[in-house]
């Protein structure tokens, strides 16, 4: 740049200018460089001070014409020494300061400042180095004053000294100016020192005292309103120290010091306390300067002297003021540095404790600029290999300000949430801020939830929702291919007995064992479903349908074997309903409904059966629904529709075969359905869970009738009442029986409770305990349907029974079947050995009766002597 400006013949020390410029730039947050006339025009003689990245960005924003114009205005022939201008950006200002030597322009400072007010429409943003507008103006003024004082005046003095030297003489003033310049240059360089503040302060204050020749200099720190601490104490070698006296500075004197310098000579009027304190130390004058932190005085610099009639001239006080300004800059810079370091450490501590890995990456170079502790420790190898971007950011959309996605890291078997935000870094470049949060536990929990949504948590089989989804697919497959499939609906028989008898934990063991057995059947390994409770569905897909018969046989084998539970073998059968698709239906709900209908038909047929869906069964299902509705209404209406019938029991060993009691039998005379067969409604009552209240109703009505009979001429009449499996497994069954006995007032010895053989031997220990409690009430126990279950004679011996009732299936052909005769004869002898009585059911002919007369049989029950009848009819005939 050539302006035609004549150069100054004095050679400038550009290295020294660069050093001063860098120091001042760091302190004031200005961007500065120096322009000088070197004889070939005006050129830049120093590098621009400031953050290099921000400098490059700033130069790209500024107009070169505006820079040239501002520089020429102060280095040309104009009288202007300082120029401040706005730029096209509302928060960027520029300035130039011209420095003259020997009255001619020698060099100038070009200064640029970025204001912290970036709310304007065309303001630039994301600059780290900013300052307020007032600080910008103050810094410009201070730089102009310091430059003129340190360079302009100094070089003028040097020029004069050079001229005098050429004449053979050198003035003392010139030497003093050079000495002052060198001292100021020395202490200004302390701005870059990393020494402790106390050490730097001592060098500055003691150096100034030595330079000026005063006797004492001190730096006092205000600890609180009543206490000071000496940071720097200096006394000339020919004087004595005053550190103790300064520690005891009067509070009034201390509090009188304001935020402005104080100049006190021997004749300055001050308060008598302060004067007395100074006189005690023989101090004749002192200059006091405050040192600030956040505009509040926190220290005071005392320059004191014991010279008689001490006064302070203007040059001396200006010198001390300049020295204190350097000290103030050192403190300010140290506070800023500590604040930045503290902020960085605080930020680092925050980032290290956020619970996720965080890193900042340059989007152009790919270099990682910042990473927190978790990121470094977790992905150290990946960071070394430069693979973080490849692993986590390859799917992120770079055109979005913020993107979020889940990322799987297969090698570590981990999942992460990646949140990527594109921002401008402190130097203005575009970077990506990435946070990685380990969500492996969350993903595993989600997978667990998904498994629970599709799988039964107990058995591991698929659940109802999964069944309906898969069945839809298999139906479509069957219709498309023209093939067939089947649904097997399976319900465990009397599972509640095992669940309640052994405990739910053993019920769960049984369900899991059955599930595992079904899953091992070829063809249905992946199509077994638990619908809830003790109900299962098995889908036989089209591919497995050719093996349908084998699959049915495998299922039958599963339920024919005993299950080892609680140290013993237990049997659990199943009722099975079968429906085919698409022949019997082509919708999920329709097929499951029809399979359920078929299953109920199997259960109603006596359990442990298989029933295939038919249209007749569908009609039966509608009847069942009507029956269920009517039964619920009947139980809610006081059980009035449930009637107790009585079938006589006779003693054939007594003359005339007299009636000795009756068996109470339940009948349902429905208001809507009429008489319903026990074979139809009792399984339904058990299925619906209504058998308990109905059974208790039957027991109480039978006891009321017994009480009436015993009090009206038949004190030895007895009544037999059946206890259902569900009733007997109730924890409070003995208490319920005892309460009914007390409420009706019967003689408990006249009450016989009948239990089925299969129930009695399924859990021998528990059944014996329950029956012992019932026997303790005085009630007799009869083993019903003997010979139809799985019992052994040893079990019969263990059960605390009073009566064995032989099932009618063994006496149907008693007059012609030798096996039946032998069986009844053997049981009679067994009963005699066990000291229990025999009751034979189902005697319908005289021929059957004649066979029994020669056997050890006392009581007989059957149509030959009387059918079950209402209480009124029974009492008319036998009471």
What does this structure look like?
It is a single chain. The chain is 45% helix and 24% strand. With 879 residues, the protein is α+β, with helices and mostly antiparallel strands. The strands form 6 sheets. It has an 8-stranded mixed β-barrel with strand order 23-24-26-27-28-29-30-31, surrounded by 5 helices. A hairpin with a 5-residue loop joins strand 3 and strand 4 (92-101). The longest helix has 39 residues, at 314-352. The relative contact order is 0.04. Residues 1-10 and 161-170 have low confidence and may be disordered.
* Overall residue-averaged pLDDT value: 84
Task: Work out the number of β strands.
Answer: 32
The largest sheet has its strands arranged as 23-24-26-27-28-29-30-31
Distance between the termini: 141 Å
Strand proportion, as a percent range, falls in 15-25%
Protein structure class: alpha+beta
Describe the largest sheet.
8 strands, mixed, barrel
Low-confidence stretches: 1-10, 161-170
Shape: elongated
Helix content: 40-55%
Radius of gyration: 55 Å
* DSSP summary: helix tally: 30
Topology:
Layout: H1 14-28, E1 31-37, E2 42-44, H2 52-61, H3 64-75, E3 82-86, E4 92-101, E5 104-114, H4 133-166, H5 172-189, H6 197-212, E6 216-224, E7 227-235, H7 243-247, H8 251-256, E8 262-264, H9 272-280, E9 285-293, E10 296-305, H10 314-352, E11 357-362, E12 368-371, H11 373-378, H12 380-385, H13 388-393, E13 402-409, E14 414-424, E15 430-438, H14 440-454, H15 464-481, E16 485-492, H16 495-502, H17 504-519, E17 528-532, E18 535-540, H18 548-560, E19 563-565, E20 568-570, E21 574-581, H19 588-604, E22 610-612, H20 615-636, E23 642-651, E24 659-670, E25 674-676, H21 678-688, H22 691-710, E26 718-722, H23 725-728, H24 733-744, E27 751-756, H25 757-762, H26 764-775, E28 780-786, H27 793-798, E29 803-806, H28 818-834, E30 837-841, H29 846-852, E31 859-861, E32 869-870, H30 871-878
Parallel strand pairs: 21-22, 24-26, 26-27, 27-28, 28-29, 29-30, 30-31
Antiparallel strand pairs: 1-2, 1-5, 3-4, 4-5, 6-7, 6-10, 8-9, 9-10, 11-12, 11-15, 13-14, 14-15, 16-18, 16-21, 17-18, 19-20, 23-24, 23-31, 23-32, 24-25
């Amino acid at each position: 740049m050539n302006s035609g400006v004549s150069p100054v013949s004095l050679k400038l020390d550009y290295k020294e200018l660069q050093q001063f410029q860098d120091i001042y730039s760091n302190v004031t947050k200005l961007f500065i460089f120096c322009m000088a006339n070197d004889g070939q025009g005006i050129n830049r003689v120093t590098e621009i001070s400031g953050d290099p990245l921000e400098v490059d960005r700033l130069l790209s924003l500024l107009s070169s014409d505006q820079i040239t114009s501002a520089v020429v205005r102060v280095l040309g022939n104009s009288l202007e020494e300082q120029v401040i201008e706005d730029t096209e950006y509302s928060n960027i200002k520029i300035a130039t300061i011209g420095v003259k030597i020997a009255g001619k322009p020698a060099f100038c400072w070009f200064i640029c400042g970025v204001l912290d007010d970036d709310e304007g429409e065309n303001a630039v943003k994301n600059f780290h180095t900013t300052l307020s507008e007032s600080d910008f103006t103050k810094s410009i003024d201070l730089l102009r004053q310091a430059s003129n004082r340190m360079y302009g005046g100094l070089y003028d003095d040097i020029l004069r000294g050079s001229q005098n030297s050429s004449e053979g003489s050198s003035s003392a003033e010139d030497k003093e100016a050079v000495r002052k310049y060198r001292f100021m240059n020395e202490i200004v360089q302390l701005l870059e020192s990393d020494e402790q503040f106390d050490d730097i302060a001592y060098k500055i204050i003691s150096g100034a005292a030595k330079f000026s020749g005063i006797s004492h200099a001190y730096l006092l720190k205000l600890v609180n309103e009543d206490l000071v601490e000496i940071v720097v104490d200096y006394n000339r070698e020919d004087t004595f120290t005053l550190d103790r006296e300064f520690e005891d500075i009067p509070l009034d004197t201390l509090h009188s010091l304001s935020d402005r310098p104080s100049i006190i000579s021997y004749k300055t009027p001050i308060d008598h306390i302060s004067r007395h304190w100074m006189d005690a130390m023989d101090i004749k004058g002192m200059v006091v300067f405050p040192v600030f932190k956040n505009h509040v005085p926190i220290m005071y610099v005392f320059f004191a002297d014991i010279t008689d009639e001490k006064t302070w001239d203007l040059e001396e006080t200006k010198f001390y003021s300049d020295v204190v300004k350097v000290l103030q800059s050192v403190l300010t810079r140290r506070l800023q540095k500590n604040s930045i370091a503290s902020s960085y450490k605080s930020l680092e501590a925050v980032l290290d404790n956020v619970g996720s890995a965080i890193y900042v990456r340059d989007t152009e170079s790919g270099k990682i600029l910042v990473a927190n502790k978790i990121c470094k420790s977790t992905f150290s190898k990946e960071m070394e290999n430069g693979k973080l971007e490849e692993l986590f950011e390859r799917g992120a959309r770079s055109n979005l300000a913020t993107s979020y996605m889940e990322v799987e890291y297969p090698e570590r078997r981990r999942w992460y949430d990646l949140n990527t935000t594109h921002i401008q870094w402190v130097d203005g470049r575009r970077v990506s801020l990435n946070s990685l949060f380990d969500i492996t536990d969350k993903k595993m929990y989600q997978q667990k939830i998904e498994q629970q949504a599709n799988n039964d948590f107990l058995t591991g089989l698929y659940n109802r929702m999964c069944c309906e989804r898969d069945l839809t697919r298999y139906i479509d497959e069957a219709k498309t291919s023209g093939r067939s499939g089947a649904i097997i609906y399976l319900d465990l028989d009397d599972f509640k007995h095992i669940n309640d008898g052994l405990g739910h934990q053993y019920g769960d063991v049984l369900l899991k064992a059955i599930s595992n057995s079904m899953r091992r059947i070829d063809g249905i390994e992946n199509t077994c479903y638990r619908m809830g409770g003790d109900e299962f569905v098995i889908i036989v897909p089209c591919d497995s349908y050719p093996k349908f018969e084998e699959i049915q046989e495998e299922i039958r084998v599963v339920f024919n074997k005993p299950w080892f539970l609680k140290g013993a073998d237990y049997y659990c059968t199943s009722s099975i309903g079968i429906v085919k698709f698409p022949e019997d239906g082509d919708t999920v709900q329709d097929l499951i409904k029809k399979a359920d209908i078929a299953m109920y038909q199997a259960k109603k047929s006596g359990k442990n059966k298989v029933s295939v869906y038919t249209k007749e069964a569908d009609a039966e299902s509608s009847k069942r629904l009507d029956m269920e509705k009517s039964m619920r209404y009947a139980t809610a209406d006081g059980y009035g529709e449930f009637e107790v019938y009585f079938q006589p029991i006779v003693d054939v060993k007594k003359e005339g075969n007299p009636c000795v009691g009756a068996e109470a039998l339940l009948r349902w005379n429905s208001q809507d359905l009429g008489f319903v067969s026990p074979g139809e409604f009792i399984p339904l009552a058990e299925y619906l869970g209504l058998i308990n209240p109905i059974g208790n109703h039957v027991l109480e009505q039978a006891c009321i009738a017994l009480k009436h009979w015993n009090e009206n001429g038949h004190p030895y009449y007895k009544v037999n009442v059946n206890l259902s499996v569900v009733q007997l497994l109730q924890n409070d069954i003995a208490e319920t029986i005892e309460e009914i006995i007390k409420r009706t007032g019967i003689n408990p010895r006249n009450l016989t409770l009948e239990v089925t053989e299969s129930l009695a031997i399924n859990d021998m220990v528990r059944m014996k305990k329950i029956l012992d409690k019932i026997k303790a009430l005085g009630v007799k126990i009869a083993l019903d349907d003997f010979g139809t279950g799985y019992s052994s004679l040893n079990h019969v011996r263990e059960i605390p029974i009073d009566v064995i009732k032989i099932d009618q299936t063994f006496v149907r052909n008693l007059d012609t079947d030798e096996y039946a005769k032998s069986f009844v004869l053997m049981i009679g002898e067994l009963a005699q050995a066990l000291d229990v009585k025999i009751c034979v059911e189902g005697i319908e002919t005289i021929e059957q009766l004649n066979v029994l007369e020669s056997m050890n049989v006392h009581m007989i029950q059957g149509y030959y002597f009387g059918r079950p009848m209402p209480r009124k009819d029974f009492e008319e005939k036998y009471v």
